[in-house]
Amino acid sequence: MPMNSSFNIAAQGLEAAGERMRIYANNVANLNTPYYKRKIPVLVENHHMRFESMMSQMQNGVMKTGVANTTGGVIMAGVADDPTPGKRMYQPGHPEADKDGYVTYANVNVLNDMADAMMTQRLYEANLAVVGIAKAMATKALEIGRGQ
Question: Cα 119 from chain centroid?
Fold first, then answer.
């Protein structure tokens, strides 16, 4: 895998983790907002090359570099609404009450969003570690190239 691919994959992971954290923070901030639907980030694998093409490229390039020129990582495909129903409370005087006097509150579970945020933080840290390792490898390669 080329050195730039390592940086690009880690950068995509950092960007996706940042976006996920924003979504989880928004969910927690709207905990008591009537009719708010919890948002769920949707991530997909970032592969633009078909498997057959990759194998062909690797087979043809074995004598050159032995690696395929592929992309990788993840991208945000969008945000989905959580279909779980929110808690309905009878509050006939509330400005958001329906015709029967009920208010449907957000379907946000703070424990779920906090757990997801903690996992996302670990993924962010792992991607930062990848950047650090790739940087150290590039620096070492430069030192070897200079003959030191």
Answer: 11
